[in-house]
Design brief:
The protein is built from 17 helices and 13 strands. The chain is of the alpha/beta class. The chain folds into two domains: about 240 residues, Rossmann fold (3-Layer(aba) Sandwich); about 90 residues, no CATH class. The radius of gyration is 22 Å and the shape is globular.
């Protein structure tokens, strides 16, 4: 395993050793860095409704506003942002990094958060048992000696009918990253063992002065404008696994979890790679693709789109959950048969000042912003959503496509936490 280019991990390391590595690494590099703005929302239920829409629950909520949330591996700010988005929830933020939690605690105190608890603990050693309605863990388990150990602990902490939001690295996004991580350790003269203080100056020099025109140089050029912590997290992280849809599905099943649906995130919004469904031109390819089950469709997309495939960022539930799993196909079918009206709220921002403290701005900012979708087709459908017609009726009246790829794009563009423009009409 240690010789594989897509695993930057020594298979002789144990979870405790890797926890110490990660504590040291994220104490040296506070990641993510403290944000310039921390938004609070006028409508306390806005993001709970959006989360339920992500999951395909428009007629009744799957997740309630007063839920218990666990942000596993919260870093410096994810637990704060979560507590602000879900003000009626009780949020627990866990992390192995002392300094990350100290930073998080200072900011939470400055802005007066009352629904957040922080604990320094390893996801390899937690013992929560069916305590949380919603578990969030993004970009964490793949930095562990054996990712199945923290994932099983996260699963055990989830209530029987709870929802998990999980992100792990997409193998095709990490080819150059992992190759660089391995090379820089050899260049550091440490026999392939991590030593951040020796690796960092070598890394920054190569970012600025890579000697050969190639794909690696193109990749490193993109790092030049990033903060040091971002460059370090990308290029020097001491332990890293990456996955395809198929290997993530196998990991999830081994941990008594089932993949449900894709979670549109800020990174895929920026890249524009946000649809796991392929849009084939040929009828035979369309027919054969449609016959595949959802996991095989996503795996096909992962293989064919490679670095252009979306992030492996999904919602999951326990395999023995009493609520049947809703596939994306079923979610899209419910989307077509539902009537919506525009959703909106306003935010007020705690703004980071030069002195390092946050100050609440009195200016109210609309959310979502802009007020209407940028995509012309999504904007057209949005303009007809007044609560009287279903999406299917709007598409028919405007002679728009009903192809699966189109419907999925439309749903993500109008009715997801990435683009929360619509709210279902309650029957």
């Amino acid at each position: 395993m240690s010789d594989s280019i897509h695993f930057n991990v020594d298979n002789k390391q144990n979870p405790e050793d890797v926890d110490r590595l990660n504590n040291s690494f994220y104490s040296r590099f506070n990641y993510p860095w403290v944000p310039l703005f921390l938004p609070s929302y006028e409508d306390p239920d806005f993001w709970t409704a959006s989360l339920n829409h992500d999951l395909g629950y428009w007629d009744r909520p799957r997740i309630k506003p007063d839920m218990k949330i666990w942000v596993g591996g919260c870093g410096t700010n994810q637990a704060i942002l979560t507590a602000l988005k879900f003000p009626q929830a009780q949020v627990l933020g866990s992390d192995v990094s002392t300094e990350s939690l100290n930073t998080c605690a200072r900011v939470a105190e400055q802005i007066g958060l009352t629904n957040l608890t922080l604990r320094e603990e390893s996801l390899n050693a937690t013992s929560y048992d069916q305590e949380f309605d919603y578990v969030i863990c993004t970009g964490v388990i793949h930095h562990n000696a054996d990712p199945s150990i923290p994932l099983k602990n996260l699963m055990r902490g989830l209530k029987a009918d709870g929802i998990m939001e999980l992100m792990v690295y997409n193998y095709y996004h990490r080819i150059h990253t992992t190759a660089f991580q391995k090379a820089i350790r050899l260049l550091g003269g440490l026999g392939g063992q991590p030593n951040v203080e020796k690796e960092l100056p070598l890394t920054m020099d190569l970012v600025q002065n890579f000697p050969t025109d190639c794909l690696m140089k193109d990749f490193l050029d993109l790092q030049r404008s990033l903060p040091e912590a971002a460059v370090a997290d990308s290029l020097l992280q001491p332990v890293e696994y990456s996955y395809t849809v198929q290997s993530l599905d196998a990991l999830a099943q081994d941990c008594n979890l089932t993949l449900l649906s894709y979670c549109l995130n800020q990174f895929d919004k920026l890249s524009g790679n946000s649809n796991w469904l392929m849009d084939f031109a040929g009828e035979e390819q369309k027919f054969n693709y449609a016959k595949l089950d959802e996991i095989d469709q996503w795996q096909t997309t992962n293989l064919l789109l490679g670095e252009k495939s979306p992030m492996l960022w999904f919602y999951l539930q326990k395999s023995d959950c009493p609520i049947p799993a809703l596939t994306e196909k079923a979610i899209c079918a419910k989307f077509l048969n539902t009537a919506f009206h525009p959703a909106s709220t306003t935010t007020k921002n705690h703004v980071l000042k030069e002195a390092g403290f946050y100050e609440l701005s009195p200016q109210a900012i609309p959310c979502p912003a802009p007020r209407a979708p940028i995509n012309p087709t999504a904007a057209l459908v949005f303009s007809h959503c007044d609560g009287t017609k279903t999406i299917r009726q709007i598409l028919q009246e405007n002679a728009l496509s009903a192809e699966p790829h189109f419907i999925q794009n439309l749903r993500l563009s109008l009715c997801s936490s990435g683009h929360p423009y619509l709210k279902a009409v309650q029957s």
